[in-house]
Amino acid sequence: MSFRGIKLFKIFGIEVNLDYSWFIAFFLITLSLAEGFYPSMYPNLPKVYYYLVSILSAVMLFVSVLLHELSHSLVAIRYGIPVKDIYLFIFGGVALFQDEAKTPSQEFKIAIAGPLMSFFLASVFFTLTYYYPKNDLFNGFLNYITIVNFFLGAFNLIPAFPLDGGRVFRSILWGKYGILKATEIASTVGKYFGITLMILGIIMIFKGSFINGFWLLFLGFFIKRASKEALVSTTLNYILSRFRVDNIMRVMNPLRSDMSVADFMSFVRPTLSTYLYPVLMEDGRILFLDLRDLFKIPYYQQEELLLKDIVKPIEFSVFPEEKLSKAYAYMKKERLDEVPVRYKDTFLGILKASDIEDIIRNNYRK
Ligand SMILES: [Zn+2]
Questions:
Q1: Which CATH architecture has domain 245-363?
Q2: Ligand 1 midpoint to CA 162 (Å)
Q3: Closest Cα partner for 218 from 204, 232, 234?
Q4: Domain locations in the chain as residue ranges
Q5: CA 198, 199, 204, 206 torsion: positive or negative?
Q6: 346: CA distance to ligand 1 center in Å?
Q7: pTM value?
Q8: From ligand 1's centre to the CA of 306, what distance in Å?
Q9: Distance 69 CA to ligand 1 centre (A)
Q10: Shortest CA distance to 88 belongs to which of 11, 167, 160?
Q11: Taking the chain (366 residues) in consecutive chunks of 10 residues, what is each chunk's mean pLDDT?
Q12: Ligand 1 centroid to 240 CA: how many Å?
């Protein structure tokens, strides 16, 4: 899943972002409330009132979603799982966790925190509606926010992974079947739930309810895809967290920086299995030779050029004790095929993404 949008603000160290798709939701919700919901409940008011209260409702809907995501995040952070970003998007919100829960009970508490917050907000707004004059437009607003929070809590409790209820369901299965099997079962439920929503959406479209129908169709598609993605990433994470970078890195001795490119090409290159290669400079630094840069040098220049003329520093690196799951996520994020392994200032070797992918292939159960 990838999101693109604008940064709003930072709270508890978490960046709150609006995905571009959020604006579509904001527009549609405001429009449908101002043209349908509010005028039908409180007729004969000036149009501008409907629009003001509808904009306020749409904002409060997303504040509610944000509070829901924040409560997941704060519990996660308490268990040492960093959360860098929360995205609000067309289907609600998502908190991007940097790691997975370590035990079933952690996962249970992180997952349940969101719906509990939504039910809490629903009860607060319900109490307010009770005391506020019934025939006032603002009471309609309080009613709307009560319903929104109630549905936010209830919908998310459906046991379809990766919805909150699916995570709760997985945490219960986890203790009995292990994380892999539990994820498989919960994400199968997620898949069929997604398909069901898609079918309902198509039926609604045929019945003439286009906006709601399409929204349901895409929501179903989104849940179906997310359940598959979550299954893949959990499996990868599980396999790779059992290995460390120094288990599979390729140990290398740096080359001398005064070797000519021609000598390198004829004597060293045929023995290489990586395209990054360390070169020891005269001042003691290690810089890197990238074979892909070498191929750009015309043959007739290779005799005069020395390795020190073409090496470059590499900003990226991983630690030898790091788990492969973390290193692999880092390489994917930075789009690296190979990355130097460093311990403090000492260069140790090169980690190749293709070596990690071999491990995944060899350990993946069919
Ligand atoms: Zn949630």
A1: Roll (3.10)
A2: 9
A3: 204
A4: 5-240, 245-363
A5: positive
A6: 44
A7: 0.71
A8: 58
A9: 6
A10: 11
A11: 76 85 83 76 76 84 91 91 84 78 88 94 89 77 89 88 87 86 88 93 90 87 88 84 89 85 79 84 86 80 82 87 88 88 86 87 68
A12: 27
